[in-house]
Predict the 3D structure of the following.
Amino acid sequence: MKIKNIFFAAAAAMALTACTSDDEQSFVSQFPEDGVMRFTTNLVDPTIATTRASITGSDVNQNGQQFQVKIDNPNSATYSYFNTVQYDGSEWRPVNRMLWQNDQQRIDVTAAYKQGKTFSDNEFINGANLTVAADQSTEAKLKQQDLLTMPTKTIANPSQEQTLMQNGKLVINFYHALTKLDVTLDLANEFYKVDPKLNNASDITEFTIKGTNAGYQFKAMETANENYGTVTVTAATASDILASQASFTAATDADMHSHATYEAIVVPQTIAAGALTVSFKIGTRSFSWTNTVAYTLEQGKHYTLPLTVGYDTVTAPTRAFSVSSWEDQPGDNLGTE
């Protein structure tokens, strides 16, 4: 019995030691041993997207793509930076080498990405005046309008940070800063019955979204909420946007309705009743729809306007727009090794 009790006591002591050891090993610092600042990026809202009007990891993960980052160290100008970070085909590298002061010093981090745009330090501080293009008729042109933002985030203690530090890298969590607008067309069976040949994607032309203000000021360091830098409409005059056709499904004998989806990226704003018009042609026939109530389009939101097209009419539901988060593909990490 004594031998048995000694055995149990030893086993309990071993178990307690193992638990203590596990607890001590449960926390692993993500700070780089060599003190060199490295980056990885992530495009948030990781749910499945059904349309293309957004930058994805495959777009950003291309050799030569870049974003700008501002690091503010409140105790050291030497360890404060404004820099461009480029993707070299395998990882993100700052144009100029960046170092952490140490693993305890707090920093504030701000970042922004836009295809074809190199932000300046002054634009981060005082705001960048930008415009969404009138011609978004191709997928490539449309994606150039997308603006990704990570407003100022604080890393209070780099040695303890687990969210914005991973595997020795500073994580840049990007969100879409503008608004995604899709218009879907349901072409009634009159088209198929009257002229079955009028049943191709190319038969819909001049698809234009009229009435949104295209100019805006982007303040990367002025936080609209926890996810977005501030976007404010600046243009006084509404503009026209030539939208991109994302999909087309032709009518058949079994289903005489053709379906098409058009996409655009617009500035977040309030649109007055009667200000927004969607116009297009089917063959030689012209069609248009105009809003009868005001709508507010918010940052980071994906709006869908479903239109039913009769041979002589265009109608929308009573609640014309549906809204959801602007989504990206699952687990879409923009820059990992």
Summary: The two ends are 58 Å apart (CA to CA). Residues 46-53, 328-337 have pLDDT under 50 and may be disordered. The chain has two domains: 39-127+143-176, 180-325.
